[in-house]
Design goal:
Elements: E1 10-18, H1 22-33, E2 38-45, E3 61-71, H2 75-85, E4 95-100
Antiparallel strand pairs: 1-3, 1-4, 2-3
């Protein structure tokens, strides 16, 4: 039985951003910092001090959720980097928070055999 390799201490940085920002931030993370341990998804929500708050609880807007896993040693640097490039400091720019992870393990895709030229995946 294979043993599970536990990574050194890791932190999870989560950004809740206005819709349409997370993919650009994700691309910059990869290009500028070499970070690929991240994911994005969307959610609906409403802030307390947003224009939608005055319309009632039924009015919500779409948000981008960005989750990034980084080593504890580089977490503060990446946190500041994300804060800056996502422009969280502007009005209605979103929010960011960080939490320690109990454990993290690497996830590596298996090597796949090469397909012959002109062959389709269904063959």
């Amino acid at each position: 039985m294979a043993t599970i390799r536990i990574l050194p201490p890791q932190k999870l940085i989560t950004c809740i951003l206005p819709h349409g920002i997370a993919l650009d931030v994700l691309q910059r993370l990869k290009d500028e910092k070499g970070i690929i341990e991240a994911s994005t998804n969307t959610a609906r929500g409403m802030g307390k001090l947003t224009p939608l708050a005055h319309r009632g609880p039924g009015e919500q807007s779409e948000k981008d959720i960005l989750n990034v896993i980084v080593s504890a040693a580089e977490a503060d640097e990446i946190f500041e980097y994300l804060f800056d490039i996502a422009r969280i400091d502007r009005p209605h720019g979103g929010l960011i928070y960080m939490a320690a992870l109990g454990h993290a393990t690497p996830f590596v895709l298996p090597e796949l055999p090469q397909m012959a030229p002109g062959a389709s995946a269904a063959e």
